[in-house]
Give the backbone structure.
Amino acid sequence: MASQLPSNILIFGATGNIGKYITGAIISAEPNVGRHVSIFTSPATASSPDKQAILSSWKSRGLSVITGDLSNADDIRNAYNGIDTVISCLGRNALASQIELLKLAEESGVQWFFPSEYGTDIEYDASSKDEKPHQNKLRVREYIRENLKKVKCTYVVTGPYIDMYLTLAPVAKEAGGYDVKSKKAVVIGSGDDRVGFTTMPDVGKLVVAALRHPEVSIDKALKVQSFVTTPNDIVAEFEKQTGSKWTVEHTPIQKLREIENEKWNANDPIATLYTLKRIWAEGGTLYDKTDNEILGLRPEDMEPLSAAVERAIGGKGY
């Protein structure tokens, strides 16, 4: 499939946090990517009042909804009928289920599979293999390397979503974030360390670009992002747009590490956030060169920091 564009696309996790941006970008793309787009979801999601607006909008543009059980092999086999390209947008808690999806894809006519890799680079350096939040994604990559012969894969590695990064979680204030209401920021370290980010709308744009360019995307982990900035530059952008001086607190890296270890020892799910924030602060999102250009995307094609901050101030975040 090295030169063949996708025809029939199936999306898992389409209505989730990042899935809705990827699905929206795919069905809105002009010219079209794929002749037909379907999503696989549970009956509960398909009938949920909270999902009706977005599902109705997508269906009005030709999208098909397939309902079934993600853990039911027959449901997946039926969904794969006639599909050549699969996009997984499954969330962190469902990542391991992709192994069965890949196994069934190999047995079907699926040719191209995008595992749910949007986010932190799980093979950035030698230490990446030991990071606890990476383990399920690493297992998926291992399965792909050792078992897939017919299905080709593409990983779209975006780094952190700036939209989520901006949130100051009340249960994890030391992990950093920005609170528009109180005009307060908590930054990690000095705040001068550079971090590569992708906006959530740009994740969709980047997946569409990868679909348009199979010749450079297949069998590759694409390292892509919207922009690189620092926590202090983010504070400055909030101050500029709100016209107010913000209060800034700092969490030293060593303190972040201590809390991270405490949370893991206590089996607290919030530990994942501390680990990821530490990885980002330590430079785990920086590259000499990204793959944006080979996908035909220039810096001016991507959203700037100001757009993400404007949405956050307006309460229109993810």
Summary: The chain has 13 helices and twelve strands.
